[in-house]
Amino acid sequence: MSRSAEAVHRVIKAYDVRGLVGDEIDESFVADVGAAFAKLMRAEGARSVVIGYDMRDSSPTLAAAFAAGVTAQGLDVVRIGLASTDQLYFAAGLLDCPGAMFTASHNPAAYNGIKLCRAGAKPVGADTGLKVISDDLIAGVASYDGPAGSVSDRDVLGDYGEFLRSLVSTSGLRPLRVAVDAGNGMAGHTAPAVLGPIGAVTLLPLYFELDGSFPNHEANPLDPENLVDLQAFVLETGADIGLAFDGDADRCFVVDERGLPVSPSTVTSLVAARELGREIGATVIYNVITSRAVPELVVERGGTPLRSRVGHSYIKALMADTGAIFGGEHSAHYYFRDFWGADSGMLAALHVLAALGEQERPLSELTADYQRYESSGEINFTVADASECVDAVLKSFGSRIHSIDHLDGVTVDLGDGSWFNLRSSNTEPLLRLNAEGRTTEDVDAVVAQVSAEISAAATPEGAVS
């Protein structure tokens, strides 16, 4: 059946499919998405699709509806059941077939969605398939005259854990007490399988019970409020490190032994240094809001830094085009050439654990080697006219601006070690600010000026939040 363009575009976004269950996304809708995806993949030569899903109450039913859409188009379905998103990417690489992961990542319980990939975990974004799928849904997906596909089940959790451990040596590490906050998300399923077999690791679990209602806190560690429990747990247990994962466990956030967050940019620098240690001259990708400490370190370690727009589809495309060994985002997505160019928070966690366990210093001292600047973190504003607000901000800085680029939003270099980026979100109606400087005072001054200009430019209908 055909669907309205408004209904389709509200749910099929730049990177994935996501919406309110019942109101925007239901079994009928995802069955049509499954059919359209299978039709596209069949045209590219695929014969099967692997499907995984997270712990949300709606995920198994929606995944089954999607599978019905796929088999109706003549492709087989391999079900891996409960999975993290990077576990689904592993399956798409292992089985060399396209994949679909049912999750709404860090969004609240009322949401669900689909992350799609091609064989080998290659991305499917707006320009690489999602627009084709949208157009098919609006026009009505053509039926397939051939035989229906089959459905089979395969458990890949153990293989996934073994594969990740094969990429990072954990032999000879000193004993580590590792606190993990799964946020009632999929890390409660994958962390024991990946980290549990490591002899040096004592796993200290927090909120490992799979519960898509997120009874303890939202599974979004990017929000500092959702790290509070882990920070307290690290201090309470005397852990050497704390790890927090989002709902689908593809992002990893780190807390040191003092209970203080470690910036994802710092994690990016640490992992980049390790990867460049085994391949000098390799390319490392970072996005426009990552600390400038990252490209500086990459150059110092003999690598080639490459700047990217924010978003997994852009970085994955660059990973494939350049053969980059590693990529990191300030949102705590980490991409690895050895993991089909896809992102894996659990693999990043293994690198940090190995780096910590290979030497005797506490994590706070180890990570201090990679911290050079102060940053604001991401600050979000809801405004009626983002471009008007950006223009007002640029005008206010005037002659202080050293340079501007527009790779992703607008990045302003003030020439004194301070810079800021303003960009509209691809998934939410927000204007996002990230600022960095040599001192906290420098960052605070930039944030205050930008915030004041956005407040002044905001219309009554678009009050700043």
Structure write-up:
With 465 residues, the chain is α/β, with parallel strands linked by helices. It has helices at residues 5-11, 27-43, 59-72, 85-94, 126-139, 157-167, 187-194, 228-237, 264-278, 293-300, 312-322, 345-357, 363-368, 386-397, 440-457; strands at residues 17-20, 48-53, 76-82, 99-102, 111-117, 151-153, 176-181, 201-206, 241-245, 252-255, 261-262, 283-287, 304-308, 326-328, 334-336, 374-375, 379-381, 403-405, 410-413, 419-424, 431-437. A hairpin with a 6-residue loop joins strand 9 and strand 10 (252-255).
Which helices and strands appear, and what pairs or packs with what?
Blueprint: H1 5-11, E1 17-20, H2 27-43, E2 48-53, H3 59-72, E3 76-82, H4 85-94, E4 99-102, E5 111-117, H5 126-139, E6 151-153, H6 157-167, E7 176-181, H7 187-194, E8 201-206, H8 228-237, E9 241-245, E10 252-255, E11 261-262, H9 264-278, E12 283-287, H10 293-300, E13 304-308, H11 312-322, E14 326-328, E15 334-336, H12 345-357, H13 363-368, E16 374-375, E17 379-381, H14 386-397, E18 403-405, E19 410-413, E20 419-424, E21 431-437, H15 440-457
Parallel strand pairs: 2-3, 2-4, 3-6, 7-8, 7-9, 12-13, 12-14
Antiparallel strand pairs: 1-5, 4-5, 9-10, 10-11, 14-15, 16-21, 17-21, 18-19, 19-20, 20-21
Helix pairs in contact: 2-3, 2-5, 9-10, 9-12, 14-15
User: Fraction of residues in helices?
Assistant: 25-40%
Principal-axis shape equals globular
User: Which stretches are low in confidence, meaning pLDDT under 50 for 5 or more residues running?
Assistant: 460-465
CATH class of the largest domain: Alpha Beta
Pfam family, one: PGM_PMM_II
Cofactor: Mg(2+)
Protein name: Phosphomannomutase
Organism: Mycobacterium numidiamassiliense
